[in-house]
Amino acid sequence: MGLTAIQVSAPLALAVVATLGYLVGRWRRTPLDELARRCRREIRRAQAVAHELEKVAWTARRNLSRYHRNLSQFKQRVSALGRREEQTAWKGLCLEAAEMLTPTLRLATQLAGAYDQIRQQTSYLMTFTEVRTDALTGVANRRGLDESISTQLALVARYHVGFCVALFDIDHFKNINDQQGHLHGDRALRQVATLLDESARETDVVGRYGGEEFLVVIPNTDIEGACLFADRFRVKMQAETGLTISAGVTAALDGDTADSILSRADAALYRAKDAGRNCVFRHTGEQIEPVYEEAPTADAEA
Prior knowledge:
Blueprint: H1 2-81, H2 86-126, H3 142-159, E1 163-170, H4 173-180, H5 182-199, E2 205-210, E3 213-219, H6 223-241, E4 245-251, H7 258-274, E5 280-283, E6 288-290
Parallel strand pairs: 4-5
Antiparallel strand pairs: 1-3, 1-4, 2-3, 5-6
């Protein structure tokens, strides 16, 4: 009887081991696949940043070289003027100084622009660091988002270069946690973060704003372009995952602070929630309006 028990249990044990091996292998493959996709995305972003920094360095080097030639010519002319009569030399020096002023101011502007571009690219690089990355989803955390917005606002103040933010919220996320468990909720968060990061451009900064909310900082884009991106992602999210999201979009305005622009995006998002979810609203600075006229029927669920 003991032998029979052993003969029966051995195949069963092998089946159990095989099943466990399959499950463990699948569990391991999934994070590795996600990691591979994330690595490919980060490599593309890093390549884009490196390319932009190379362009900045090349432009700055060219401008400095040109200015150095002008400065050498100016020094030679000053030396030549010094050997002439005093009054003539003084008048000539004033003319030469006036001519030198224009390229000097131009170089100062160019170097300031290079500094701001380096600062912007540095903010993209910062999102790679662990302290600026959300541990669960792998996208930027609140600190990384705050620094990106601060950089963009500095560019707005200096060059009036526009940018937008889009705030997304997973609809009925509490129901996912309550009905399917927090592990499934975590998977949903990672799924949304991955798809959002893949949908954004390399120059956009995608981050977890908090809870089930995600924020995208979108440089060099007007509100129409940002709304188009947000609504396309809304449609893509539902088609590929079955989840629905609501979004609020706004553009940076003169005099904005991080708090003011985020407050407008938040207000637009809550209007989308009130309109029935699974839609996008935008805040123009004066009013909140749907991206498309036809809003979904209001949903009574919390």
